[in-house]
Amino acid sequence: MALEGADGCGKTTLCLILAEYLGAIAYATPPQKYVEARGEVDKHASNEEHYRFYRDSIYDASDEICLMLQNGGKVVADRYWLSTYTYHQVMGVAVSKEEFMHIVQPTLTVILALDHETRIARMSRRGMSAGDRRVLDKQREIAEAFRTNAVELNIPFIVVDTQNLSPTRCAEIIIEALGS
Fold first, then answer.
1. What does each C-alpha distance from 178 to 1, 18, 22, 32, 107 come to in angstroms?
2. How many domains, in total, are found in the chain?
3. Where do the Thymidylate kinase-like domain residues begin and end (predicted)?
4. Among residues 18, 50, 14, 22, which one has the least CA distance to residue 34?
């Protein structure tokens, strides 16, 4: 399962809760080996270089997730390929679904939704990263593009509006959707 959505909508919190409930591994992208370079890439790379960095990190994430799944594991990903695709599409990069079709695909993609003002307030409280600031003016467009892309790309997905629900209730809704 992959949790997707614009910044500040609760992906990380929900990933940890779901992993605990499901006996799964909480997996954050990009993989650890990319974390050190991420700050510099977010600050200085062109949009195309930025895309290639994150696309390649998803390729490596897919390899790591594959190993976890082969050993009978379950994985809840805090972002996956739809984030890379959507963010960079909104940033004006020519992205292609085909670049992501050879990687392991989520059983279910969960798009988390939350109103713009609440998301921005959360991002401010936690401290905005260079990556957050890079796309701050595009957050509304990014949030809408997740749903549009999931439909157009024929991805199995649900939308969970986290606005008035506790993280626990959101997790219950997602677990119910997995069972159907």
1. 9, 11, 11, 28, 8
2. 1
3. 3-164
4. 50
- Tell me the per-residue pLDDT of 29-68, one tens digit each, with 9 for 90 and over: 999 999 999 989 988 999 999 999 999 999 999 999 999 9
Q: How many CB atoms lie within 10 A of CB 91?
A: 18
Sign of CA dihedral 78, 142, 33, 55: positive
pLDDT in tens, 69-109: 997 899 999 999 999 999 999 999 999 999 999 999 999 99
CATH code: domain of residue 129 = 3.40.50.300
Q: Which helix (H) or strand (E) holds 48?
A: helix 47-70
Tokens 């990687």 identify what position? 103
Average predicted confidence (pLDDT) for the chain: 89
Give the residue numbers spanning the domain of 169.
Answer: 2-179
Reading the block at residue 137, the tokens are 């003016």
Closest listed residue to residue 27, CA positions, set 1, 55, 54, 53: 1
Half-sphere exposure of 43 (CA within 13 A, CB side): 7
